[in-house]
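Bump. Still looking for 2',5'-phosphodiesterase 12 structure tokens.
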Amino acid sequence: MWRLPGARAALRGFRAAVERHSQAEPVVDPMERAVVRCVPSEPKLSLSFSLADGSHKNMQRDQSEPLGRVLSRIATNALKGHAKAAAAKKSRKNRPNASGGGACAGPGSEQAAACEPVVKLYYREEAVAEDVLNVDAWQDGAVLQIGDVKYKVERNPPAFTELQLPRYIMAGFPVCPKLSLEFGDPAGSLFRWYREAKPGSAEPEGGGPSSLSPSSPSTSWTSTGVDERVYTPSNADIGLRLKLHCTPGNGQRFGPSRELESVCPVEAGPGTCTFDHRHLYTKKVTDDALIRTVSYNILADTYAQTEFSRTVLYPYCAPYALELDYRQNLIQKELTGYNADLICLQEVDRCVFTDSLVPALEAFGLEGVFRIKQQEGLATFYRKSKFSLLSQHDISFHEALQSDPLHKELLEKLVLNPSAQERVFQRSSVLQVSVLQSTKDSSKKICVANTHLYWHPKGGYIRLIQIAVALAHIRHVSCDLYPGIPVIFCGDFNSTPSTGMYHFVINGNIPEDHEDWASYGEEERCNMSLTHFLKLKSACGEPAYTNYVGGFHGCLDYIFIDLNALEVEQVIPLPSHEEVTTHQALPSVSHPSDHIALVCDLKWK
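Sorry for the wait, here they are.
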């Protein structure tokens, strides 16, 4: 039997990770906890618990190692911890020749040998043999005994692998923590928000997990009364920091809790935003017969945070309003306030997708997929209660044009003009295509496409080539792979209603003598006659503009829908011209992008 030389004094374990700070919290087992993380894809497992001196131990051991070696190591660590605590106690008493009150000495001493508390692992009340491998020994529900203290083994409990609050927090704008879980999910986890107590206020309220902040002994906290993942600060929170206490769970059990505090206090919001009035039309999620759809170019941070943007493109915009931390607050509030079923976004930075959009929209019931272009890309979100993702069929235009037999005829026409071909192949534009299935009626499927076409004013024929590839690919998915499913095609098409691109989409053909074939000049004219067989219309019509900057305004964004299967129930009005130009142009302190979101409610025919 493995034994530990050491004191008979009680060895305390680490605190129970889940604190009983409200009736909603999980019940805490009185036994101490030893947390084991063991996954098949990794060679080592981890074992976490606390020792007599209060120090936390996190051991990394091979899964194939015999149990006896781990128990021996625990014995050594426990004895060292106790010896250290005894020495500290003796030093504090400052008594010459003190014996330490009979405490055990270090390993190997006669005093140590006289104590010998037991270190054992039990499973179903039977001792686990020391030759059993770690991977099999450390089972959920096993009991680790160190001296007089018993630890309940929890194998792979829910745990946060990442937890972070946004740096910039404003009153009236939802705060959603970025989090990642292992062996758990946000829906099964518990959250409680606290605000910093105002100086001179009464004692902290709410029975919080701790009345004092670990980072600032003078800071006390009071409960906000909000037990949801998302918290929207009020004006009363301005000037105060926030704290979030969260417990990971999976619907069956809970893991160790964690706390985090905001770096900066809550700041005042910008006042009325361009989307506030629009939210009056979208207060609730639509019923199952409708599909609320949003298309929005949210302005990539990689473009907003350049000297050219600050001094040439958007000189009228306050510099702080171009910062990502500020704009993310507005983007999150705008998107969540639409209560959409489908959201197609363009100019999405990868970090914005993972760190901002996914946690914020996930908290409101949406799930998303991302397609990178170069520095930014496309994102499509769908409401999980209405849709499930069946398949994805994303393409890069230039790669598909060169390699997919579907575009063989178009490629043969393009190669007749080498300079035009080179320009088209240099472009990195992509098409995101997702096939969704209704969760209420499995016979209902829909093809959701999302794109951002080439931006240059002279790129008319490049956009014609790109849209021809896009429409052929969408038709292949919606007619060949999933026969007869309707299409919703969203995006920033960088084309006004007077262009060849728009004419081609709506009318199904483009003549070879259209002026856009010579958009780079007559010397590069690449005449083609193109057709497509989808029946599409612009669900939001042809607004005066969806892009409004200092030197340009025009309609560039569209939600094209399948005329045969879908119809428009409602178009959410765009902001008034007065709202758009309050701060001269877009973006501004009250609008996060140079584009305006298109929002409409669609229904099945």
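The chain has a mean pLDDT of 89.

Edit: fixed formatting.
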